UniProtKB/TrEMBL annotation:
The protein's name in its UniProt record: UBX domain-containing protein
PROSITE patterns cross-referenced by the UniProt entry: UBX
UniProt organism field: Corchorus olitorius
A GO biological-process term: ERAD pathway
InterPro entries associated with the record: FAF1_2-like_UAS (IPR049483), Thioredoxin-like_sf (IPR036249), UAS (IPR006577), Ubiquitin-like_domsf (IPR029071), UBX_dom (IPR001012), UBX_domain-protein (IPR050730)
Entry keywords, A to Z: Coiled coil, Ubl conjugation pathway
Keyword Coiled coil: yes
């Protein structure tokens, strides 16, 4: 009796794991299961033949392909064996991947002379059953039909019984981590499988750990880029507000300069008449006084602005109706309140935002005269 172990030492290295990569046939990749078994024994249902002239007879239904291996095995060797999933190969491989286990694959050749001793002495031993059920997802198939025949043609075993330790790989391939051909006793089989789990499992664990580290690093980079983008947006908004502030300030300074220039024109002094020695004014003087007085009264109209802050504090300030929205911003900045960064002013009802585009408007044109309430909203 000879044992051939393939897949270790002389095989090429893939990601630090000694294995060989096998491309699966298209028929296996596209297969789907009609049944999904999660028990160790297959009992085919019985049907009754409809013949009124004969005694009722029971006839078994055709065994589905997924149950063919278990049915053949248990009819000859009993129900003591590892838990073999009665499903298609790709479904068993997906179960192994989800449970973070390797797949133990057994191709059953009933006519091979070494098969009876292997099945009754090794696969049915309590040691092998407990070890495989605890550490592997087991899948078996007949080597001369269905997916078992396709896997035999793909892996090309030179002898039977044939066992292999399978792991999923990228694309349409699988990694054959260990391959055993020929008869083998229970203790030797468990020793080989234990060594495979320890060596190959640690390598796969390192790969998963490296993958998790790469994913975490990518998430940190995305969070950092998001934070930097937010800081850039805040800085840009602050620069735009400052630019609008200084532009409106220059406009106010220019208006102030023009008002002062008109007030200092020589013609203004000549239009003023000295009071007569008798203390009486002429009709023209009284007329000019009656015209200027309403203009003076209109120019000094005040607007009461109540400003509410996010912390609940309130401040009320008087402004001229001809002052701009910028004057309110300048007043708030002059308070030096802590925690104020980027902000904007909002009227509650009707809701209206007084931001960068409205800083040049007068309070009267903005609808805030003679009295208004504004809320300071932090950005």
């Amino acid at each position: 009796m000879s044992l051939t172990i393939r897949g270790r030492g002389t095989a090429p290295s893939c990601n630090g794991i000694f294995c060989r990569m096998v491309c699966l046939p298209r028929s296996i990749l596209g297969g789907f299961s009609r049944v999904m078994g999660r028990r160790n024994q297959y009992n085919p249902p019985m049907i009754e033949q409809q013949n009124p002239y004969s005694q009722p007879q029971l006839q078994p239904l055709v065994v589905p392909e997924e149950w063919a291996f278990l049915s053949s095995f248990e009819q000859q060797y009993g129900t003591t064996h590892p838990f073999f999933y009665a499903c298609r190969f790709m479904e068993a491989l997906k179960i192994a991947e989800d449970e973070h286990k390797f797949m133990f694959m057994y191709l059953h050749s009933p006519e091979h002379p070494f098969t009876p001793s292997f099945c009754s002495g090794t696969l049915s031993s309590e040691l092998v059953v407990q070890f495989l059920d605890a550490n592997f997802v087991c899948w078996g198939a007949l080597a001369d039909r269905g997916e078992g025949l396709q896997m035999a043609a793909t892996l090309r075993p030179s002898s039977f019984p044939f066992c292999a330790v399978i792991a999923p790989a990228a694309g349409n391939s699988i990694a054959v981590l260990q391959q055993m051909e020929g008869p083998i006793d229970p203790a030797e089989l468990v020793e080989i499988l234990q060594r495979t789990v320890e060596e190959q499992g640690s390598a796969f664990g390192r790969e998963e750990e490296q993958m998790r580290a790469r994913i975490q690093e990518a998430e940190r980079l995305r969070a950092r880029e998001k934070e930097e983008a937010k800081l850039r947006a805040d800085r840009q908004l602050r620069e735009e507000q400052d630019a609008a502030y200084f532009a409106a300030l220059r406009i106010d300074q220019e208006k102030e300069r023009l008002r002062n220039a008109r007030a200092q024109k020589p013609g203004d002094a000549s239009n003023r008449q000295m009071p007569s020695p008798t203390g009486k004014q002429t009709g023209k003087t009284r007329l000019n006084s009656s015209i200027r007085e309403p203009q003076h009264t209109q120019g000094t109209q005040t607007t009461q602005i109540l400003i509410r802050f996010p912390n609940g504090e309130r401040r009320e300030q008087s402004f001229a109706s001809t002052d701009t929205i910028l004057s309110v911003y300048r007043y708030i900045d002059s308070l030096g309140l802590p925690g104020l960064g980027n902000y904007r002013l909002i009227s509650s009802f009707p809701r209206k935002i007084y931001g960068v585009d409205q800083m040049g408007m007068t309070l009267k044109d903005a609808g805030l005269h003679p009295r208004a309430s504004l809320f300071l909203e932090l950005l």
